[in-house]
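pipeline/complex-builder :: batch 7 item 3
reading input block
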Amino acid sequence: MFATLSDRLADTFKNLRGKGRLSEADIDATAREIRIALLEADVALPVVKEFTAAIKERARGEEVSQALNPAQQIVKIVNEELVEILGGETRRLRYAKTGPTVIMLAGLQGAGKTTLAAKLALWLKEQGKSPLLVACDLQRPNAVNQLQVNGERVGVPVFAPEPGNGVGNPVAVAQASIEEAKRTLHDVVIVDTAGRLGVDAEMMQQAKDIRAAVNPDEVLFVVDAMIGQDAVNTALAFQEGVGFDGVVLTKLDGDARGGAALSIRSITGKPVMFASAGEKMTDFDLFHPDRMAGRILD
Ligand code: GDP
C-alpha cells in the first residue's frame, strides 16, 4: 500500500554510505520522509511535528554507523523513539486492595466496548480472576442482549436490569452491581457504558455520574483504531468529560496503521494498555509498544 519508511529512506540515503556524520541536508531530507510516513500512518500533525523535531535533534549527534546503513540506522532511532513514547513497557491493570476491582469502559458507540468488555472478562478469567460484566449501556437497543450473548460465549455472568425494564437508570445499575459482586464473590466488575455516534454532552454526563457513583480503579477509554485522525479529538473530549486512566485500541485487525496509538499517548499522556484485533473473544492482548512501532513504520 504505502512505501515503508525503510524504503523511503533507502532512496534518500543512496549516496550516503561511508560518510561519518549526517549533514544538515541529509537530516532535513530524513525528517521529511519521517513526517510523510507518520502522516500516512494517521498520526496527528502536532505529534508528527514534535516527534520529527526530536528525531532531528537526535540524528544530529549520531555517527553514521559502519555496521548499519544510514537508512537502517535512522529507522532504528525512529523505532526506539516510537517505543519510548508509546510507553516503553506495557502498563498493567491496577487491582483494588480490598473489595472488587472496578473497571469502567467509556467510548463512542461502535468503538467496540461491548465486545471488548467480554474479551477483557475472558482475559481476566485466564489470569485467575472472577469477573462480573455489568450492562450500563441502556440506551442502545440490544446492547444489554449483546453483552449477555458475549458474556455467555466467555462464560462470565452479566448483571443487567430485568428484561422489560430496559430504560432503567445506569447509575443505579452500576452501583447495585458492586453489591452483587461482593455478594457473589466476583473480584472484578467490568462496567460497560453507553456511547453515542459522536461526542454528546448527555452521554458524557452519564459516564461521569457512573464514574462518581462507583469510583472505578481503572477507567478505560475504548477507541476504534480505524477512525484515524479523529481518535485524538475523541480522546480529548473523553479526557475532559469523564477522565480515563488507560486506552484500549480496537479493530487493529483492520488496515489502520496505528497512528492513533501514538497521537493519543502523546496528547493525553495516558498509556495504551490493551489491543483488540478481531471479532473472536480471544483476539485481545496487552498492548505491545514495540509491535505498534513496527506497525506504524511498516
Ligand atoms: P460498542 O458500541 O462500543 O459497544 O461496540 P460493539 O462492541 O458493539 O462493536 C461494534 C462493532 O464492531 C461490532 O460489529 C463488533 O463485532 C465489531 N468489533 C468490535 N471489536 C472489533 C475488533 O477488534 N475487530 C473487528 N474487526 N471488529 C470489531
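note: Strands lie at 101-106, 131-136, 158-159, 188-193, 218-224, 246-250, 272-276, 284-286.
queue -> next item
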